[in-house]
Amino acid sequence: ICRKMYNLSCDYAAKIKEKNASILAEAGINEHAVKLSVPHERSVWCYPIQVALPSPVQPTVEIMQDKEKTFLRYKGDMLQMNSLYFQKLEQLYRYGCADDRKFDYFLSRCYMLLKRYAAYFGTSGHSEGAQNQGALPTPVMECLNKHFGVTFECFASPFNCYFRQYCSAFSDIDSYFGSRGPVLEFKPKVGSFEANPPFCEELMDQVILHFERLLEDSLEPLSFIVFLPEWRDPTPPALLKLEASRWKRKQVVVPAMEHDYRHGFQHLVSKTEVSVKSLHGTMIVWLQNDAGYQRWGPTEDRVDALLDAFRPGRERERDRTQLLSPTRQPTTTTSSITAATTSAVSNIGGGIDSSSMMTNNKASIGGGGGVTVTNSIVSAAAMDNNTVAASMQQATAVSVMSSAAVSGGVGPNLATTTVGGGVGGGATTFLTSAVPSTNATTTQQASLSSSA
């Protein structure tokens, strides 16, 4: 049986390679003629994966929408998602896509994204892989950002990400929506990161080793807050390594049945099904170097706030508060910033910390190419002074470069606006246009209204 599966896989891989070559040939694209920049041993601001090859012309995908659902159809194959998540993909694409500023390929790439995740994780009707896409509740992510400076998710997808910057499984399609690639190939030098990996023992084991190497190599503030299932009898090697790590600063456990996770198919299920009770305890471990511990150390107050954010019903209370509390029109401040390798841009995920996105530039594609960004407008009412300052100082280098500018060019100007807090969340936490927010620490309703 294993030999038959292997041979079938080889046959399919060969067919895919042939089909890919024929598509490139029809579009006149020579994959061997692309010149890639030589990686440098220097730190650059983190930005989404850049694709070296230009995209062939994409096929036509039809879209149909009603109040709650968005449907995409290609050659009779119909896929669907909740309309709020379609709006979220639109905003992520606006900031993460480098080669399609006019959104000519947006629908086809959304269809391919849905198809990829449906093929790999199953569909909501069967829920085969829902647990592999489970996410932390929105109040927990807000707390991590507020108290521990977290601005990056090590395991996410365009559907379940809370922050605009994240690592994911499929960089070839996720990168159009802001992915920084697979976490095991991601080498940050400074910053605060959240890691909630799929509960696969081999993957968890490799991730812990990866984090320990990163902490060993960096003298800058570096912190990883790791969430793993508290499995015992027997205890997985990953948990044993985590508990024995020299970088461990604190360890706490959230008991089973006393906290929720967000459904792995939150982009498909109804709002009432998003919160799922956890059947096992969740272990939280802080891995930090000395500088990271000084900056984001797990003090008693911070840990208590995080445990309180895990309390069941907090997300419903949060949504109810947002519905009952009247919003006010925020005042805005305007600043113009030009940068060669860094950009001040709108922050989808709360306050972007000034040191949260430095990475070691060892990627096979791309240099340190920056972006010129002008007219960055940040809502002062939606963020505290520190957040405004950090957001205006430095954020991710937005990938608005063309493929020709991947190796160091400067992209076009981008006018952006930020209102409110993060990307992910519950029923009212996604991106809509020009809806004011009251406070970045308590709400993240509407986030962006931008034009390129």
Notable traits:
three-stranded antiparallel beta sheet, globular, 15 strands, alpha+beta, 452 residues, disordered C terminus, single chain, 11 helices, seven-stranded mixed beta sheet, 16% strand
If you had to describe this structure to a student in words, what would you say it looks like?
Helices cover 29% and strands 16% of the residues. The model is unreliable at 332-452 (pLDDT under 50). It is α+β, with helices and mostly antiparallel strands. It is built from eleven helices and 15 strands. The protein has helices at residues 2-26, 83-96, 106-121, 138-148, 171-174, 201-217, 237-244, 290-296, 300-309, 314-324, 385-393; strands at residues 43-45, 62-65, 69-74, 77-82, 152-153, 188-195, 222-229, 248-254, 260-262, 275-277, 282-288, 332-335, 358-360, 376-379, 416-418. The N and C termini lie far apart (53 Å). Strand 2 (62-65) and strand 3 (69-74) form a beta hairpin. Strands 1, 5, 6, 7, 8, 11 and 13 form a seven-stranded mixed β-sheet that branches. Strands 2-3-4 form a three-stranded antiparallel β-sheet. A three-stranded mixed β-sheet has the order 12-14-15, covered by helices on one side.
